[in-house]
Design a protein that fits this description.
By secondary structure, the chain is mainly alpha-helical. It folds into 3 domains: 56 residues; 93 residues, Tyrosine recombinase, N-terminal domain (DNA polymerase, domain 1); 171 residues, Intergrase catalytic core (hpI Integrase, Chain A, Orthogonal Bundle). It is built from 16 helices and 8 strands. The strands form 3 sheets. A 3-stranded antiparallel β-sheet has the order 1-2-3, covered by helices on one side. A 3-stranded antiparallel β-sheet has the order 4-5-8, with no helix packed on it. A two-stranded antiparallel ribbon has the order 6-7. Strand 1 and strand 2 form a beta hairpin. Helix 4 packs across helix 5 and helix 13 packs across helix 14. The longest helix has 21 residues. It is elongated. The protein starts with 8 loop residues before the first strand and ends with a helix.
Length: 396
């Protein structure tokens, strides 16, 4: 009984359906997943020379790498969905995963039925072009690009495809963000309107510490150091309703200690006393979660409810309704920078991963500071020396 060849083999034959007058390349190779078993690949061409070239190139791949796996026949849509559910879901936060999911829907709709192995850079680029025509923001397309890149990088690792076509595609350029925070007067107007609100202390914490909404909602009483007058930012609360989750900061710089004023510490102590009264009123309905900002039964606040309350306060304060909670953070940062506080100090307070991020967001505040410093430079260097007048230097 003849033994099967141990190395991959291949040949060319005329297609069994003689009416087509085409040629078929056949490859037989050891199954890398099932030792002792063999698999067969075939591809049909119009010319014999094309079929022979495919056989030669494919044999070379199999002989070069005994564990070589042919490109997958799986369609891109099912693969992308599977990658999102099996890989991305355990690697990123719930809110990030939701952004991933919605960002790739145009991809699934437009080219989801195309096999992963047949994807080309032009296929991906056509999706971006379609999204631009539909008015999708460049930042969203950038998310689409990053998700497709990560998913197809995984496809390369899984030996489903040899190269990732997304690496040869450029998404639309995302414009540099321009921050237009509330002025100090506008921030004061908002806080005056918030003085009679049940979440008054929450608004003051965000405005005076520069923390993010999720960081403020994630605060627990154990994060407050009353003696040192500091607040530790070490988690963020994200998600909606029953899907709320606590997460650690994305970067090491995000976990930080924020110095607080005596005024804010006083507000926090008053809030703690008020929460104890609310707890007594709730009785057995109270859930002891340890959060600083809670509902009337002790549960953490919902981010969407906080956002809606903020919008109502904007109306009371007579401020632009497009203002976001996050803009209170920007207001603190720009105020500090305008007062000459070093960029590094502001960056650390905001929890930015690097000073470069702070400069990118708030660089427009610094030119005014530079002009003031330039005026002061003459005094620093020349002092009261009458011989150092501009005219004398000009004549010299």
């Amino acid at each position: 009984m003849p033994t099967r060849p141990r190395n991959p083999t291949g040949f060319v034959r005329q297609h069994p359906d003689t009416k087509t007058k085409r040629w078929q390349g056949i490859i037989k190779y050891p199954d890398p997943d099932k030792p002792g078993q063999w698999k067969t690949r075939s591809k049909t061409f119009d010319k014999r020379a094309e079929a022979q070239q495919w056989v030669d190139e494919t044999l070379a791949e199999h002989r070069k790498n005994p564990q070589y796996r042919p490109p997958s026949d799986e369609q891109f849509g099912p693969f992308l969905t599977r990658w999102l559910n099996d890989v991305a879901r355990i690697q990123v936060r719930a809110t990030t995963w939701s952004a991933y999911y919605y960002a790739v829907q145009p991809v699934i709709h437009l080219i989801g039925d195309k096999p992963v192995k047949n994807l080309t850079p032009l296929d991906i680029q056509s999706v971006y072009t379609s999204m631009v025509r539909e008015g999708t923001k460049p930042a969203t397309i950038r998310i689409t690009h990053n998700v497709c890149r990560q998913a197809l990088d995984a496809a390369v690792d899984y030996a489903m495809i040899p190269v990732n076509p997304v690496h040869r595609v450029k998404p639309p350029r995302v414009p540099k963000p321009v921050v237009h925070p509330p002025t100090p007067v506008e921030a004061q107007s908002f806080l005056r309107a918030a003085d009679s609100h049940m979440w008054r202390v929450l608004w003051y914490v965000i405005a005076l510490t520069g923390c993010r909404r999720g960081e403020a909602l994630g605060l627990q009483w154990g994060d407050i150091d009353w003696d040192r007058r500091t607040i530790i930012i070490q988690r963020t609360l994200a998600g909606k309703a029953a899907r709320k989750q606590l997460h650690e900061p994305k970067t090491a710089a995000g976990r930080r200690v924020v110095a607080s004023s005596m005024f804010l510490m006083g507000l926090m102590k008053d809030h703690l006393h008020q929460q104890k009264l609310v707890r007594l009123a709730a009785g057995p309905d109270w859930v002891d979660t340890g959060f600083v900002f809670t509902t009337r039964t002790g549960k953490p606040l919902d981010g969407d409810n906080v956002r809606r309350a903020f919008k109502k306060l904007l109306t009371v304060a007579g401020l632009d309704k497009s203002t976001r909670i996050h803009d209170l953070r920007h207001a603190m940062a720009t105020t500090w920078l305008a007062q000459g506080i070093p960029v590094k100090v502001v960056s650390e307070r905001l929890g930015h991963a690097s000073i470069a991020i702070t400069l990118q967001l708030y660089g427009h505040v610094l030119p005014n500071m530079q002009a003031e410093a330039a005026e002061q430079m003459d005094t620093w260097l020349l002092g009261d020396n009458p011989d150092a007048s501009p005219r004398r230097h000009h004549e010299t």
